[in-house]
Amino acid sequence: MRKRSPKKRYLLPDPKFNDTLVTKFVNYSMIQGKKSLAYRVFYQAIEKVSEKSGEDGLETWKKALDNVMPHVEVKSRRVGGATFQVPMEVRPSRKVNLGIKWLINYARSRNEKTMVDRLAAEILAASKGEGAAVKKKDDTHRMAEANKAFSHFRF
């Protein structure tokens, strides 16, 4: 990193829950700049989650996000002509970004009819500790555990 990194941009909180994490989630789920549509999909999914679980939808979503966020990951490191998968701890901001990205991507690849149904189902599954996004986190942790022998190559 030769040049200075850009200043951190801070997001405005969303209008309904007054939470910046919701805004970040909506920004990641947005396609072709259609933010109002992304907000509508998120809010309807949260309502559906609260109907099905009988609990607060936003709390269930936060619990699901916590279950999806990884703590360790592997990064490639070249040492003397060989490439090693070195396990490293994940920075807090990257942890949140990966969790959001995985939740949205695996919700999109589900088989329900609308995106609201897909997102609600993935949030419910992740809050219970199951679903594709949680499996991705477990795979990441398993890979880091398997490559623990190379942890002395950290940089």
Please render the helix and strand layout as text:
Layout: H1 20-29, H2 35-53, H3 57-68, E1 72-79, E2 82-89, H4 92-108, H5 115-127, H6 132-146
Antiparallel strand pairs: 1-2
Helix pairs in contact: 1-2, 2-3, 2-5, 3-4, 3-5, 4-5, 4-6
Would you kindly provide a written description of the structure presented here, covering whatever features stand out?
- By secondary structure, the chain is mainly alpha-helical.
- It has a single domain, classed as Ribosomal Protein S7 (Orthogonal Bundle), CATH 1.10.455.
- It has six helices and two strands; from the N terminus they run αααββααα.
- The protein has a two-stranded antiparallel ribbon with strand order 1-2.
- α1 crosses α2 and α4 (92-108) crosses α5 (115-127).
- It is globular, with a radius of gyration of 18 Å.
- The protein starts with 19 loop residues before the first helix and ends in a 9-residue tail after the last helix.
- The mean pLDDT is 91.
